[in-house]
Amino acid sequence: MEWERRSDPSAAWEVIAAARDGNxxxxxxxxxxxxxxxxxxxxxxxxxxxxxxxxxxxxxxAGMRTPYGLDVIESCMGCKASKQxxxxxxxxxxxxxxDAASFHSVMPPGALLFVEGQSPRGVYVLCSGRVKLSTTSKxxxxxxxxxxxxxxxxxxxxxxxxxxxxxxxxTSSACQVDFVSRQDLMTLLQNESxxxxxxxxALSREFQGAYRDIHDLVLARSSxxxxxxxxxxxxxxxxxxxxxxLRSAMTHEEMAQRIGSSRETVTRLLSNLKxxxxxxxxxxxxxxxxxxxxxALAI
Length: 299
What we know:
Blueprint: H1 2-6, H2 13-18, H3 24-39, H4 92-101, E1 102-107, E2 112-114, E3 122-128, E4 131-136, E5 142-148, E6 153-154, H5 156-161, E7 168-171, E8 175-181, H6 182-191, H7 193-219, H8 223-234, E9 244-246, H9 252-259, H10 263-275, E10 279-282, E11 285-288, H11 291-298
Antiparallel strand pairs: 1-8, 2-7, 3-6, 3-8, 4-5, 4-7, 9-11, 10-11
Helix pairs in contact: 6-7, 8-9, 8-11, 9-10
């Protein structure tokens, strides 16, 4: 009702989160509320069975504000955000099957898609935005494994194997995601060889990325070398100039969690890099002034 009264999308986040809750009754009730919201716009309210939940796509009204300024993707068919390397880049028939099995949603920054140790409910195809993947020790120490970008699929290995999620996925920015339940994913894998090939390629990239990260984290001789590697890995790949600007610079705490160090150590190391004129700060933007010098430090 708050969503309707104030045209404020953020008022519906609790309902949307409940629509993907692990409890079947909670999930069914929340989805029925969302369906009723759509029905009341065009017809009088009627009673219906809340236990019968159907997949529906919600059409965007002309002039309606979109959450967080995102170009909301209502359907996988004709999606303009998809690129060649995206997991969801399928042929038209397979795209229709994926779209029928997907639950489209927009998530705010800081939303948890799934938590380490949770039973796998399905996978999330990241249409836009960034998602932080992390793991936590028994002592509460957090290690950020990577920042997932648009086009990646999250939770794939756990969903296929049926084992608990290996990590926690939290949105770093406003994101649009497509959720596909584990049951629907397994059906797609069995019926569509194209989905199987894409899944194998995605898992292979995950393995190679994990191998490189372990190599860099373990074999780097010093914390400064690990930090230098991290900064270089975040730098734009296409720029050929000596100076590189990190458009989405991480906080000191996030850098520490990426290299397995403390925030105080990262602050001290960044100060040393600035004194050596290897980097400089322009507000919230970190600029790599001497890429060659940083590369030498990272060896």
